[in-house]
Structure formats: C-alpha cells, structure tokens
Design a protein that fits this description.
Layout (H helix, E strand, L loop, with lengths): L1 E5 L6 H11 L5 E4 L10 H11 L2 E2 L3 H7 L9 H13 L2 H8 L6 E3 L2 E3 L14 H10 L4 E3 L7 E6 L2 E5 L9 E5 L5 E5 L13 E7 L4 E7 L3 H10 L4 H9 L2
Parallel strand pairs: 1-2, 2-3, 5-6, 6-10
Antiparallel strand pairs: 1-11, 4-5, 7-8, 7-10, 9-12, 11-12
The protein binds zinc ion (ZN).
Length: about 250
Amino acid sequence: MRILVLSDLHANMTAFEAVLQAAKDRWDRSVCLGDVVGYGPDPNEVTAKLRELGTETIRGNHDKAISGVMVADDFNPIAKAAVDWSNSELAPDHLAWLTNLPRGPLTTDGIVLVHGAFQDEDEYVFTPAQALEGLLDSTAEVTFFGHTHHQGGFSYLNSKLEVLQIHPRMNEAFAPLRLEPPRRYLLNPGSVGQPRDADPRAAFAIADLEHQTVEFWRVEYDIAAVQQRMRKAKLPEALVQRLMVGR
Ligand code: ZN
C-alpha cells in the first residue's frame, strides 16, 4: 500500500495538479492532513478534487475557521481576509464537507495523521521538544503532521531524538527516507499550496510501510498563474508574494 500524503493545500489548484501529475501511478490511496482551503484562489476546485479522489482528510485550522467550526479570532488580519473571502466563495456542499471533517489524531492503514501537534490540532511542531511530546504519545511507527508548512521531521529511538534533514535538492524531485523499526517517526510532507521552508516548489510525500520507505517530494508549478488568480480575487498582496519565495 503506497499512501500519497498531502497537507496544507490552501486552495492552490495549480500546485495540487502538479503534485498529482508528478505522483501519477506511484500511489494506491491518499490522505490529507488538513488546511484544504484558505489563502489560495481555488477553494471549490481543491475541495472538489479531494472529494473526487476519496482522500481521507482531517481538518486544519483554516478549514475550521472558514466553515465556522472555530472563530478566527487568533488569525492575523491577512489570514482573516482570506478566511472571509473563501467562506463567501465556497459552494454550500463543499462548505458542509469541510465542516464535517474529523479532527486528528486519526489512525489509518497503520499511520497516524495529525494537523498540528499530536495533543493539540492547532499547535505548531517546530522544535525537538515539541516533537518529542508527540513521539512519546503516538504509538504508531509513523505519525504525519502538517501546519508548519516545513518539509522534514523527527525520529526517536532509545530516548534519543533526531532531527531529520530531508529535503530534495533543487535539481531533484524526491529524497527517500529508509524507516528503521523500532525507531519511530514524526514526519511532515510539507505544504502543497504555500511552502514556507524557503523552497517554493509544491511539497508532498509518498509512504510505503511494507517497504519501509517514505519519499519526500518537491515539484515546480506555475506560480505566476496562481498569483494572477489571487490578484483577480483581490486576496491580500502579502499572500500573493510569499508563494514566489516559499516563506
Ligand atoms: Zn496551513
């Protein structure tokens, strides 16, 4: 079973299409770690595609804010503007689907999915200390998380935590990680629609637990086309600009 792991698509259909094109016949089923919508110009298209693919999806903070499950009080004004715009754009049917997304942690096919931290779906996991809490609480060999938009992760064995620097170089499409049981892993596939780890390419992962490998992928997409649609929709210029630099 090869699992396509998507996260933080953020309503960027051009990036999502590039990911599906690159991943083509390399996966059997797909999962999504949340933030389907928010920031980007294509909330209906991205939601429709995930539903069409039957992608098992947990909710992210943007999905909650846009569908009204959570009040977007702690969102900055730029993110909040995108929340309001997305809410007004979404078809009622797609909005209902987003409203009913389950929260993580969710176990499926031997992996655990969370949006933020294992203990709190809205918390960011950046530091080894934050990662350690999740690694100690999750009992699965591999737990996937999103929310930070940074590709990479952590592993844990014999009370020792290791930061994994896995990132395909600019001329490479993917970097493989060999899993070594009983070592446990907390892995972030990176963001499809709004990378923030200084690489503007769309990010995703393909996990194959039978063969004990996880591939971390990056793929280029037509950023200018997305920026054009964002400006047409009058989404905040800061959101338009950051796609280019991946920050
Ligand atoms: Zn996000």
